[in-house]
Amino acid sequence: MRYLIGLCLRGQDPHSPQTRLRCGTIAGGLGILLNLLLSCGKLLAGFLTGSVAMMADGVNNLSDAASSVVTLVGFRLAGQEADAEHPFGHGRIEYVSGLIVSLAILLMGIEVARSSLDSLFHGAQVQSSPLAVAILCAAILVKLWMFWFNRTLGRTIGSAAIEATAADSLSDTASTAVVLLSTLVSPYLNFPLDGLAGLLVAAFILKTGWDAARDTLDPLLGRPMDPELAADIDRIVLSHDKILGIHDLVYHDYGPGRAMMSFHAEVPADGDFLEYHDLIDHIERELKETHHIDTVIHMDPIVSDERTNTLRRQVADIASSIDPALTIHDFRITPGPCHTNLIFDVVIPYGSSLTDKQVCAQLEQQIKALSPNYYPVIQVDHSYVDLRQR
C-alpha cells in the first residue's frame, strides 16, 4: 500500500490539481478492476449456492465498479483549468461525482432490500460450498485493503469522493461478513436466514450511501470553515503587531485546493496607511503560500483613546454576559451635546438560543444602564465560522 500511495503522490504537493488528478485516476482504476473481480466471484458463488444475499452482495460490487467509473470521470473533469465560463475552476465536480456515487449506493441498497424481502418470504434453502466460502473470505480481505488504501489516500489529499469510497469499502466488508456467516449457518437451520442476511447487507449499504451523500452535500451547499483552519488563520494574521483583530471571515469552497476568503483586519486609525497597505498585501501572500487560499482583506481603522477603549471593553463584557459566544467589533463613538452614539457590530452565532431582537434589546438596556445619554447603534452579524469551536 505504501508503494501505491508513493506512486500517487510522487513527493509532490498533495493538494495540487495535478497530484489530485493522478491520485483519483489510480484509485478509480483500482476500484473498477477489483470490484469487477469481486462481483464476478460473488455472482458465481451465489449461483452455485442459490444465495440471494450473496448475489445481492455481488451486484453491490458491480455498482461499486460503476461508482469508481463516476469517481474517475469526476477527477478528470475537476482537474481542468479555470476558463472564462468557470473562472474558479471545476473542482466542485469532484463533490458532484461523490454525490452521484452516494445516490447509486442508496439505489442499490433499496434494490438489495427488495430482493432480500422476497427471499425472506419465498426463498429456497441455501447450499453451502467451499468455493463460495473461499470467495467470500478473499472478498473480505480485498475490501479491507481497499478501505485502508482509500482512507489513507483520501485523507492525504483531502478528497471527500475517495473517503466516501473508503467508507463504502468498510461497509462492504461488514456486509460480506454477514453473508459469509449466513452461508456457513443456513444449511443447518430451518429458517430463511439468507433473506435476513440480505436485509442486513441492505442496511449497511443504505447507511453508507446516506453518510456519503451528507459528506458531499455539505460542501456543495456551503459549510463553515474548518475551526482548526480558522484558528491558524487567526494565528498568522495576529502575529503581525499592527493587526489589532480580525472579523467577518467569509470562506468560499470551490473544490479541493480551490478556495477564497475575505475578512476585515483592524489597524490603528492613527498609523501610516501606506505601511498598512503593504502589510495587508504581505498577509494575503502569506495565506496563499501557507493554505493555498486566495484572500481579500479589508482594513478597518480603530480609534484607540482612553474613553473609546473603556467603553469598548464595557460593551464587550455586556455582550459576553448575555451569551459568552457573542462578540463585538467595529466599535466607535460619536459624542454630541445631548447624547453619545455607541456604534458597533455584534456577532451572533447560528444556533444561538436568543433571537437578533432579543440580543439587541438586552444590549440596549444594559448599555443605557451605564448612562442614559448613551445611544447604541447596533448592526447584527452572523458568523460564517462556528465561534463555539474556536
Description of the molecule:
The protein has 390 residues and is of the alpha/beta class. The protein folds into 2 domains: 2-221, Up-down Bundle (Alpha-lytic protease prodomain-like), CATH 1.20.1510; 227-389, Cation efflux protein, cytoplasmic domain (Alpha-Beta Plaits). Helix content is 63%, strand content 14%. The chain contains 11 helices and 6 strands. The strands form 2 sheets. A 3-stranded mixed beta sheet has the order 1-2-3, covered by helices on one side. A 3-stranded mixed beta sheet has the order 4-5-6, covered by helices on one side. Helix 2 (17-49) packs antiparallel against helix 3 (52-78), helix 2 runs antiparallel to helix 5 and helix 4 (93-122) packs antiparallel against helix 7. The radius of gyration is 29 Å and the shape is elongated. The model has no long low-confidence stretch (mean pLDDT 84).
